[in-house]
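Reminder to self: tokens first, then the designed residues, so the page reads top to bottom the way the pipeline ran.
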């Protein structure tokens, strides 16, 4: 049966320095993300029908999954999907602002990139405990900012995640200690706006 696998990082562990430190990237990708993948595979071991679905399908259809696996897919499937997105929407030396249709949409909703950054950082700062801050596209194509707890995915609400910031302590504690706001402020330096735009325009 097919198993979910840990995707390789699309850049070196040290590529996002000084904003995201090398050791955090190593532990975050090799240990935390790997654990979500392992736990997801373990949960689906006796459900070959579910193993043939994509991770997107599993998270969209979460409420109809067998109760025995639902929480494990929510937490570990969510963790797998969220982190796969997270690696892809970061890169060293990317453009400092979005372009094209995404830029127009952001200006329309948030007044500009600074307005978007403020809302995302605010959502991340206010998330009590662990979770994510998101920019998503809803089913009508509207842009929304909110946060989710733990590894809950916007896909379960039929929203397309465009940009997500991990605000679990494991994402920043080694370098930023308890200063989540400093991490959030720095994180935008490594955002891959081209990938966010690609997701925004994807059908
Ligand atoms: Mn994480």
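Designed residues (203 positions):
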């Amino acid at each position: 049966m097919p198993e979910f696998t840990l995707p390789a990082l699309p850049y070196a562990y040290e590529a996002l320095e000084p904003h995201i430190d090398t050791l955090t990237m190593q532990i975050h990708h090799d240990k935390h993300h790997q654990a979500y993948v392992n736990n997801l595979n373990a949960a689906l071991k006796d459900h070959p029908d579910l193993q043939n679905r994509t991770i997107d399908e599993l998270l969209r259809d979460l409420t109809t999954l067998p109760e025995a696996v639902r929480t494990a897919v929510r937490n570990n499937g969510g963790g797998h999907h969220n982190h796969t997105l997270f690696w892809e929407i970061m890169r060293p030396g990317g453009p400092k602002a979005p372009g094209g249709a995404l830029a127009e949409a952001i200006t329309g909703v948030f007044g500009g990139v600074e307005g978007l950054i403020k809302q995302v950082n605010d959502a991340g700062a206010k998330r009590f405990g662990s979770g994510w801050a998101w920019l998503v596209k809803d089913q009508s194509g509207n842009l929304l900012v909110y946060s989710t707890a733990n590894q809950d995915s916007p896909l379960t609400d039929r929203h397309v995640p465009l940009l997500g910031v991990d605000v679990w302590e494991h994402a920043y504690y080694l370098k930023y200690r308890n200063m989540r706001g400093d991490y959030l402020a720095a994180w935008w330096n490594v955002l891959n706006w081209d990938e966010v735009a690609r997701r925004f325009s994807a059908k």
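The chain has nine helices and three strands.
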